[in-house]
């Protein structure tokens, strides 16, 4: 078999959805502090992809989605409060 045929028939690893769930959680958590306009939607998408691919750690994917939505809620509240997309600690 040629190398390209072997790569095409290779099954995806089970670690991939786990990594997506962890990345979703971390990006959602960091997004609460910085770049919530970018990291929030990214965390939501990664969490949904991890769930779709069948991660065994569904709770991390759900937490990533929840934190991503929280990022967007924080952004909406801050924007409504002072008509800006930046906030200070």
Key phrases:
mainly alpha, 89 residues, 74% helix
Could you report the average pLDDT, rounded to the nearest whole number? 83
Topology pattern, helix = H, strand = E: HHHH
Low-pLDDT runs of 5+ residues are: none
Structural class by sheet pairing and helices: mainly alpha
SS elements, strand count = 0
Q: What characteristic shape results from the CA principal axes?
A: elongated
**Estimated radius of gyration:** 17 Å
Give the count of helical stretches. 4
* Percentage of residues in strands: under 5%
* Euclidean distance between termini CA atoms: 58 Å
Major beta-sheet overview: none
Helix-residue proportion: over 70%
Could you characterize the architecture of this molecule?
Helices cover 74% and strands 0% of the residues. By secondary structure, it is mainly alpha-helical. The longest helix has 25 residues, at 58-82. The radius of gyration is 17 Å and the shape is elongated. The chain contains four helices and no strands. The model has no long low-confidence stretch (mean pLDDT 83).
């Amino acid at each position: 078999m040629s190398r390209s045929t072997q790569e095409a028939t290779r099954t995806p690893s089970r670690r991939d959805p786990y990594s997506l769930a962890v990345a979703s959680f971390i990006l959602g958590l960091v997004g609460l502090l910085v770049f919530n306009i970018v990291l929030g939607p990214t965390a939501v998408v990664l969490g949904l992809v991890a769930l779709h691919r069948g991660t065994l750690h569904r709770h991390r994917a759900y937490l990533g989605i929840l934190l991503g939505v929280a990022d967007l809620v924080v952004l909406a509240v801050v924007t409504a409060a002072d008509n800006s997309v930046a906030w200070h600690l």
